[in-house]
Design a protein that fits this description.
Aldehyde Dehydrogenase, Chain A, domain 2; five-stranded parallel sheet; Aldehyde Dehydrogenase, Chain A, domain 1; binds 2-aminohexanedioic acid; single chain; alpha/beta; about 500 residues
Length: about 500
């Protein structure tokens, strides 16, 4: 299945779902295509367009597998995740090449994506020996109080295409380490990458039914969200879809974790190291073609260094080499699809109407090697004010809006004047400002003297306001999402002891 790596495959392959340890077509036989966004004539393959029936089969398999998987000691489940990490390590280059072909970001970035999955697997292995509860003194004599963690059951995982391996593993590995079983739907823009991850799961010896793969678009996701036996849902994607999922799943009391949009600010103060800040803007705004929920999309810069920052960014960004991500010298890949290209393009008009200046880029990128892909020039808007749509809406492309401010307080106020709150960055050498930013920026993540992207697998990841619903992925906190706390009281007094009553009888 994996020889189709460099955009050179000759025949179009048809891929399958993975349900109860078997690769199968969808019941209807319907399929959809995945194409290379850098070279649209390159078809990666056909994938099952799964219906509610396919989802029901996957959920049933997961429900059955849960009976024994939940009883396997967590350290043993951890050992299986270690094998998953080892296999991902072995296949890192091969999987990364395929991911680049499917979703466009350069090979060095997809290797980072797979590495994040490897880190997540090894972290999960260690958590197998650390699923701590609490022991707490009882208020009664001869009584023992503790909490233990229990898995929830079948978890539905609906993931995004921009980190097609890392982000699913943020969900899948803690879910299964905790003793849950899962039904995983990759994004319809990255089904092949999702399939390669599940192949690793199979080859590492994860028992049948523990991880089930159903390919498809919105209706497939909806069937997962609606299924009464899916006890928890974890979603990464747009705020709009996230809200729909939340309202549907909340009605049947499912647990829901949402990771959604961002409009992440980077504050650059007049005392900042401007070279460092420039590098941070280039990587934060144009890395992954700006298609990260953590991408830097607002540069909030002190007026004293505004012109210099703009100049430095333009000087560097205009040298970025666009192209097919599996070519060695490519620094920036295409947008994911025509819809994304249309959306990003439409914001050029929005910027003009709002009165912003397009200081760099602003157009589809064309030329040798680019005409067959969804390439867009790295773009910089200046003369942006906080109320403009380009300062408020998530564009999800290589577009940075520059907002000039007069003070640090104004910078914080602009940074927070937004519906989202995922990531943020502050460039300053002043320790007071750095600590004020940590305290006062309304975001789930704040980087001091680093770009808004670069989350590490063992740290909590998530956002406030419209970005999330209070849960975190990554790190230890995600294990709170995938486990349910049970409180246990053991009374060894041999008598009836009434809490709140017998000890306080005056
Ligand atoms: C995402 O964009 O959905 O910090 C995840 C980062 C990456 C993860 C991004 N490690 O940008």
């Amino acid at each position: 299945m994996t020889e189709v790596l460099n955009g050179t495959a000759t025949e179009i392959q048809t891929f399958q779902n993975y349900i109860n340890g078997e690769w199968r077509d969808s019941e209807s036989g319907n399929t959809f295509e995945s194409r290379n966004p850098a070279r649209t004539s390159d078809v990666i393959g056909n994938f099952p367009a799964s219906s509610a029936e396919d989802v029901a089969a996957a959920v049933a398999a997961a429900k059955e597998a849960f009976k024994s998987w939940r009883l396997m000691p967590a350290p043993k489940r951890g050992e299986i995740l270690k094998r998953v990490g080892d296999l991902l390590t072995e296949r890192k280059d091969e999987i990364s090449r395929a991911m680049t072909r499917e979703m466009g970001k350069p090979f060095f970035e997809t290797k980072g994506d797979v590495q994040e999955a490897i880190d997540t697997a090894y972290y999960a292995m260690t958590m197998g020996r650390q699923l701590f509860g609490h022991t707490v003194p009882s208020e009664m004599n001869d009584k023992f109080n503790m909490t233990i963690r229990r898995p929830i059951g079948v978890c539905g995982l609906i993931s995004a295409w921009n980190f097609p391996v890392a982000v699913p593993t943020w969900k899948m590995f803690p879910a299964i380490l905790s003793g849950n079983t899962v039904v995983f739907k990759p994004s319809e823009d990255a089904p092949h990458s999702g399939m390669l991850l599940v192949k690793v799961i199979e080859d590492a010896g994860v028992p049948p039914g523990v991880v089930n793969l159903v390919q498809g678009a919105g209706p497939t996701g909806q069937a997962i969200v609606n299924h009464p036996d899916v006890a928890a849902i974890s979603f990464t994607g747009s705020s709009e879809t996230g809200s729909k999922i939340a309202s549907t799943a909340a009605a049947r009391h499912a647990r829901i974790s949402l990771e959604m949009g961002g409009k992440n600010p980077a504050i650059v103060m007049e005392d900042a190291d401007l070279d460092l800040a420039m590098e941070g803007m280039i990587w934060g705004a144009y890395g992954t073609t700006g298609q990260r929920c953590t991408a830097t999309s607002r540069l909030i810069v002190h007026e004293d260094v505004h012109d210099e920052m703009v100049e430095r960014i333009i000087a560097k960004a205009s040298t970025l080499k666009l192209g097919y991500g599996n070519d060695d010298d490519t620094e920036m890949g295409p947008l994911i699809n025509q819809k994304a290209l249309d959306k990003v393009t439409s914001y050029m008009m929005v910027a003009r109407e709002d009165g912003a200046t397009i200081a760099m880029g602003g157009e589809r990128a064309t030329g040798e090697g680019l005409d067959e892909g969804f390439f867009f020039q790295p773009t910089l808007f200046t003369n942006v004010t906080r109320d403009m749509r380009v300062a408020r809406e998530e564009i999800f492309g290589p577009v940075l809006s520059v907002i000039k401010v007069k003070s640090f307080d104004e910078a914080i106020s602009v940074a927070n004047d937004i519906e989202y709150g995922l990531s943020s960055a502050v460039y300053t050498k002043d320790v007071t400002r750095a600590f004020k930013a940590m305290r006062d920026v309304d975001a789930g993540i704040t980087y001091i003297n680093g770009p808004t992207i670069g989350a590490e697998a063992h740290m909590s990841f998530g956002g406030v306001k419209a970005t999330g619903n209070g849960h975190r992925e990554g790190g230890w906190e995600v294990y709170d999402f995938y486990t349910e706390t049970k409180t246990v009281y053991v009374d060894f007094s041999g008598g009836l002891q009434r809490a709140q009553i017998d000890n306080y009888d005056d």
